[in-house]
Design a protein that fits this description.
66% of the residues lie in helices and 5% in strands. The chain has helices at residues 2-8, 11-20, 23-38, 46-50, 64-67, 75-96, 98-106, 108-125, 135-152, 168-175; strands at 155-158, 161-164. The model has no long low-confidence stretch (mean pLDDT 88). The chain starts with a helix and ends with a helix. The chain has one domain. The chain has ten helices and two strands; from the N terminus they run H-H-H-H-H-H-H-H-H-E-E-H. The longest helix has 22 residues, at 75-96. It is globular. By secondary structure, the chain is mainly alpha-helical. InterPro entries: Peptidase_S54_rhomboid_dom (IPR022764).
Length: 176
């Protein structure tokens, strides 16, 4: 019984899937895995170095605005983010191209939420909670998919209720 399960697993399919991924998607996955591996050693704390900590943002540590999506808390966080991000980023990059994806993800799709989080955290909440992980990209890409779905299918009908499809990521976010 167990041998039939293992015989159905085919590494060639996984290899083909990875080779089919666009360049930037593969690069992001590689950087996330390398950042997780760098976090295993004890001489240098990559989480402390690259996480987005609102109190520690300055001109000399502005790199944190772009490094926090690549660094994760632990292995489970890393795996879940990779599993959620890969198909979404694959679709986005396939549609808009590699250079556009690089410029958007390293530019406004990371910096605008990071600056907004820092302002909200420091001025409104008055806390200093560090943030790390590619979840920001997952939710941004879920928003893109929600708007795309809304254009073709504006409502999800459950019984007599009509729920706008663009609200589904918000519902999922509040449920998670």
């Amino acid at each position: 019984m167990a041998s039939s399960v293992y015989s159905s697993l085919n590494t060639a399919r996984a290899r083909t899937f990875v080779q089919r991924l666009p360049l930037f998607t593969r690069l992001v996955i590689l950087i996330v895995v390398l950042a997780w591996a760098a976090g295993l050693q004890s001489t240098w704390d990559i989480r402390q170095w690259g996480s987005l900590v609102p109190d520690q943002l300055s001109f000399t540590s502005a790199y944190r605005i772009n490094t926090f999506p690549f660094i994760h808390v632990n292995l489970i966080h890393t795996i879940l983010n990779i599993l959620a991000l890969t198909p979404l980023m694959d679709r986005f990059e396939s549609e808009f191209g590699t250079l556009t994806s690089i410029s958007l993800f390293i530019g406004p799709l990371t910096t605008i939420p990071a600056v907004a989080y820092t302002i909200i955290e420091l001025l409104i909440l008055r806390r200093n909670t560090p943030v790390m992980g590619a979840s920001i990209w997952v939710f941004l890409l879920l928003g893109v998919e929600a708007i795309r779905t809304y254009k073709t299918n504006p409502h999800l009908t459950i019984g007599t209720w009509k729920i706008p499809t663009w609200t589904i990521p918000l519902i999922l976010d509040s449920a998670i």
